[in-house]
């Protein structure tokens, strides 16, 4: 069966809904949204239907369905639990050439009600022709997430300007560019921020600007720790709208795969020991692409403002009057904690968290060891693999107990994640034994003791058990054995 998609204007047109239960109520709600004149026919009604009847928004007939009622309606919906009655209504409707929808019966229906994403006046209807309603629902949910709620306001704004835009850009290609910029550029951004007045002013400016001066922009996006499921909806949208993506090495391939197919991808990785693009060169690239009128996504691992030099990039963009937005991401400390089963704070174990980097500090700025060595505090140490020795020495020298537990998480949230556990006293030894490599994050503090019992993702932590086996040169237990042991406590 192939259906013809159609949007019907039902305002002030009579529609009959037979049935008074929750399904009928949902159909009536949608019909009222389209300003249809609804009559409900049922012996009993849901409380909401009763309220609509009491308010005069819906007419009600108690008596049994009569064929003659179809005389004056444009559409009929059969939503009764009585299969025979539904069939009868469908037959009468067919004879009178009135479109009928029988709830949950595609074969008896001459029109289907699609799954809808409502960004009025923009409306997206999805149908599987009655074959796979769950799939249609899934698609609807995906689109719901993908399409910002401000799209409706954007459509209304564009509608009001149509004539002026046409006059300003008589050339079709120029007009398309204008619309594209309107729908994905700063004006759309202002509407997303709930600032319709500013958006209107921005449109005025773009309508007055010379048409050959396209305005590029930069979105600084946090890509999270690697698992693409941890991207925000806004990050996904930015990736879908990008012309150019400048990304760090740390950004996972799975995340990059979600970006627009024809977006240009430029790696501007900065990693110790590898060829890297200097910060100045990154600034130049951002400026060059934005000035060429492109929508630039600057994609960074984790969150752009946590050891990501996002602040410096924004200062540069501001100084050069390039419009920008920032989309936060899940930072490594938060992600690694979640994926290793280490609550960053815990009523009984830690009252504060400290995000620190073990790397990149100037020599005259030695860390405040006394502060870092406090008890009942969780340290989340970024970029620390090479500095574990100094960290261990500093903390021990300032009184942090050698028995303080740690969890060192390598490739957090990625399929190859490894978690090494131990205590401050054997931190360096453990990390070396398991050859932990960057990217890895150290969580140190009382809460780290919970990792073996709360771990849920990937391999169980490589803790004392495995270490003991390896030290005796015996093959360690397999992960499922360890998992069973952990479950058993
Ligand atoms: N802006 C990033 C941090 C960049 S600094 C954020 O908010 O997460 C790079 C450091 O982050 C790495 O050296 C490592 O310590 C940590 N890191 C980033 N991703 C990680 C991951 N998936 N697993 C473990 N550590 C990670």
Automatic annotation (TrEMBL):
Residues engaged in binding S-adenosyl-L-methionine: 225, 301-303, 306, 331-332, 383, 412
Domain of life: Bacteria
Chain residue ranges for the region called Uroporphyrinogen-III C-methyltransferase: 216-489
Positions where Phosphoserine occurs in the chain: 128
UniProt xrefs under PROSITE patterns: SUMT_1, SUMT_2
Residues noted as binding NAD(+) in the record, renumbered to the chain: 22-23, 43-44
Pathway entry: Porphyrin-containing compound metabolism; siroheme biosynthesis; siroheme from sirohydrochlorin: step 1/1; Cofactor biosynthesis; adenosylcobalamin biosynthesis; sirohydrochlorin from precorrin-2: step 1/1; Porphyrin-containing compound metabolism; siroheme biosynthesis; sirohydrochlorin from precorrin-2: step 1/1; Porphyrin-containing compound metabolism; siroheme biosynthesis; precorrin-2 from uroporphyrinogen III: step 1/1
Protein name: Siroheme synthase
